[in-house]
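Two proteins follow. First one:
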Amino acid sequence: MNLKTTGNLIGRAYISISLFLALAFPVQATSLEKILQDYLAQQGLSGGVLLVSAQDQTRVAASGIAMHGANVAVTPETRFYLASAGKSIVAAAVLGFVEEGTLQLDEPVWPLIKDIDNIDQLANSDAVTLRQLLNHTSGLPDYLDDDFFAASEKQPQKQWPPSQAIAFALGSPPTNEPGRRFEYSNTNYVLLGHILTGISGSLQVALEEKVFSNARMTQSSVGKPVGTSVLAHGYAGDEFADVSDLAWASVLGDGPIVASAADLARFAMALFRDEKIIGAKLLKQMQTGSNADEGYGLGIGIDGDEWGSWFGHGGSYEGFEADFRYYPDGEVVFVFLTNGNALDDGSILDTVAESYFGE
């Protein structure tokens, strides 16, 4: 999911909260809080959470408004829609089923998706493998286009089933032959979500079984959680229009998750450091780019900076953005969640990395 909107927040008094659970930590609590507040103000964002976790110690800053009108402040426990950052969680669940032998990485997925209405009209669908769906080399056209957005805005609370979502891609040509080239397509993860649902009965159950329980993620759900008061609404535009329903209705495999910053950090640590979700052999494959693109593995972005290599994933949708990074050399994870859309594409995590490693 990848939709940007603009907003402007001028003269707003931010409500800020910072917690620190360790005295000796490379980044100071006041520094993390300032980084967050400055970024929210510069980018016109309603609120957000910024988290750093390393050596079983965590520091988190929370600032801004989670729900306008009621004037509910963002807290460290506030849950945000993760958009495409949730793809890494879906991918980890898929790999969990690969590890137990239920799924095969390099076998065609056709037998697992052929029950979707009109799937035979989706280019390349009869030839792609699980690996090609995971690393975006399938060549499947993306359903998430202007026509889909227009339809969604008319029915913002509608939870689109896979068949109706991919209908927007039917008849479109493939972007490439399977395995030939990297081409990011949300359709890949809609099909992965369908496969997980076919195994476990629902996407929620599949993620609970393979990821949430293993990572002790108790503040995560597919779609809007029921009965919680710690939920960030998503806002767009200068007037902070509430566009939350669009995100909360997004429950397909390409971006289904609402979670707290702490839970996203728990996921990264459980996956990369502790190997509680998948074992070392499969994790290495997840962290390895394809021949078509060395910068993307199996549901994980691969990059680096002057502080070292890192693995992670970002996400952006109407009213929400999310980003996380795990630096293996320092065994540290950074998380940023916000209920708005930044004015530019620069990552606040670059600033966090400089503050953390440069101290």
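Second one, unrelated to the first:
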Amino acid sequence: MRLTKIKLAGFKSFVDPTQISFPSNLTGVVGPNGCGKSNVIDAVRWVMGELSAKTLRGDNMTDVVFNGSAARKPVGNASVELLFDNADGKIGGAYAGFSEISLRRQVGRDGASFYFINGTRCRRKDITNLFLGTGLGSRSYAIIEQGMISRIIDAKADDMRAFVEEAAGISRYKERRKETEARIADTRENLERLQDVRDEVEKQIRHLQRQAATARRYQALKGEERRLSAEVLALKLRDLDSGAQVQ
């Protein structure tokens, strides 16, 4: 798997639609200072999901949109597309059958980013997951910038481990494990909330059961009261009848 082509439009100094091809495994990009060589690397990082404006040498993410010059007006959005040769099937999963894979990201001046894989809208996470364990990505060892070697040499144990895990191809499994653990934690939290709801419902049921028992006892007592009242009335009527007969 290798990067074969970059298509840029409105991205930093590449205001006009520009296509950069990489015909072989080793390609050099040369030019005078300020011609946009670093912007090519920024474009790759950006499509891979980079979220740090500082890493892209800007103050905010909308700085990647061409902001105009003395000769050109600003543009409304920026777009970069990366084309990868996947003939070796390095990128597996749902895209294993594609010999070429396209990644595209675009952003407007409102700051809203949109990601695409092979022309289909996707999430940033889908792109980062696609390259987990391949050595590619916005912060992977595949992109070595100025000062990176020194940072690796001086890196702490945890940072060095991250590079080794990515190179060994196990970072994807750690990421999936992390996601699974997060889902388990969410499930446990939901179960605890459900238990709280169940306890509250059971409490209400017990209260209603007591009310129902009280209501049944009330109805029984009212029935007994009516029966006794009827008997008293019957006795009174009998006494009246007896008195009338005596007279």
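SUMMARY FIELD: Residues 171-246 form the longest helix (76 residues). The domain at 2-136 is CATH 3.40.50.300 (Rossmann fold).
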